[in-house]
Amino acid sequence: TREYAKYLSDEDAIRVGGSSNVGNAILQLQGEDIDAAERAGLIDVIRLAQFNDMLNRFSTSQGMAERIKTTVFPAHYASMIRLSIWAFVLVFPPTLSEEIGYKAIPVSAVLGLFLYLIFSIGKVMLDPFDGTPHDTPMNSIVRTIEINLLEQLGDDNIPAPLEPIKGRYLM
Prior knowledge:
67% of the residues lie in helices and 0% in strands. It contains six helices and no strands. The longest helix has 26 residues, at 45-70. The radius of gyration is 25 Å and the shape is elongated.
């Protein structure tokens, strides 16, 4: 969303909105503002170094999240796991049947189902930033950061924290 625009000047909002990477554009603006403040003598060299270090850490964290988001999980991994589960379900009952007889079939089915459920959970968790109920609740995290920053700035217009949807999950 363009929620960031309410914290930027119209000129900066247009500049950020036209960027292919909004996060990088905002970091660029912050860097330019810090540089201008240092040139104007509003901050000393030590604070400048601290601000630059902070922007570097933000950029590094953003880059790590973007790599997670854009890394494609090789399809053959999922195929191999699925094949392994089927091999287990088909091979395990005959080997276990000498020990426990016909009970090997339901035992193997339950174990196979358990392995398949673990596999399914893994597939759901592959994309933690897609905005589904099982993902990292980015909107809630960002809102919490927004609230904290506005409180530190002494702003009176603080938004309410995001509430769980249907009482179950945050987005």
